[in-house]
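[09:14] KT: can someone run the structure on this one? pasting the chain below
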Amino acid sequence: RIAARPPGIRLIVTIHRVFTTSDQVVFYRSGLSGVSFAAPASSWAIVEGACVSIPAAGRVGVPQWRGLTCALARPRLFAALDRGSPLTVLDAPPGFGKRTLVASWLHGGGAEGRTVVWVPPDHATPGHHATWTAVLETLRAHGDDAFPHASGPDEPGADPFTKVVHAFRSCEGPALLVLAGVFDPATTLPCVYELLNRCPSLD
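[09:31] RB: done, structure tokens below
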């Protein structure tokens, strides 16, 4: 159970999963298993457009893809992201637009006032160590002012997840962590729940 806490860090996780009988995107909110709604796949269409940009300060790694300004409007899904749940999991087959949804929401002003930590998928070496090493490297890209405990040498054999926990515990302002492309949710999500529970500033 995730205890109530003041507004702070949020997490969004997108999961690559192949469905053979479903044409819907399952949208989980605020909790370990509660399904809020299932959006028709047709509502996740992607439209090509012009290059766009967003402020770089405090938003390390957020994509600058073509098409974000012209992506199909999804106000219902944007409103769900705006609710401020501590954990949001987007679970759909590859190509359904999970990352485009989150990126276009951020480009449209989502997560205002939060430090955004966008961690891209690692297709080459998925797994616990690779996932949390990538998170740690993204935190370091923000600099010591945002995450002072993310810097410093790594001890041989140390678990990067432990350092990620320390880094988020040292974060003074609210933040949004986006794990954009999780290939092993059975391994990653338990760590996500632990991260929420161990960091007092997580909402």
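[09:33] KT: thanks! The longest strand covers residues 175-182.
[09:34] RB: yep, looked fine to me
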